[in-house]
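Entry for the shared binder. Reason: the reviewer on the internal report wants the predicted structure included alongside the sequence.
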Amino acid sequence: MKFGIEGKTALVCGASKGLGRACAEALADEGVQLVIVARQADALAQAAHEIAQRSGTRVIPVAADVTTPEGRALALDAATQLAHGAAAAYDIVVTNAGGPQTGDYRDLDIEKWQAALNANMLSPIELMRATVDGMIARGWGRIVNITSAAVKAPSPYLSLSNGSRTGLTGFVAGFARQVAPMGVTVNNLLPGTFATDRLKGNLVAGAKQADMALDAYTDMRIKGVPARRFGDPAEFGAACAFLCSQQAGYITAQNMLIDGGAYPGTF
């Protein structure tokens, strides 16, 4: 199936590795021109080169920290190098930030909470605010926020993620319905346990909190997924590309959980 987004322009955050890179790769495979952003310049440049070589589409790396106003400005201004030739003129925006510190809530002071809220709630809102009017003017846009399965099933060692990402989810619930009449969709992707570097850190933290050996804890986590495996980032990227497609124009304000069936609820 062709998604009908060839030639569109996209900003993908946190795209040097993991789920952000998987989303960038899936969009590039559909012929989308990309600006990819991450903080580590060398890893990002390598990712941009590899994605461009694989897909044949244009990929511009911008080494920046989008949790800062200066970093967001660099990412937004890079749109001038793509088709529309105007700052912030992106058709597709994929927000993504590395998860905040894990651990017991007693160890989390106000500064850590403020940093988590800035990275996982306020910065995505700022990127949406900066790009949505251009989408509205063109009558088409797709925004996808990578959040976490913790939004639906909070984990006791992910307190910062539980709180900050749930705040973003609440904002999107209203915002998405406001812009839907203008052809702009806004959805959240909620990843469960995917085989990324971030997962490795979460497993270490979870094993420590559970007072278990890492191998035993990892095996327990795998057995807790009905699919009996961790997810492949490419599967996540494909879901992101679908939400950005022409075919997904009637899907908005949704929280798509991709966790191999781990969440036990009906809704």
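Summary line for the report: The beta strands are 9-13, 33-38, 59-63, 92-95, 141-146, 184-191, 255-258.
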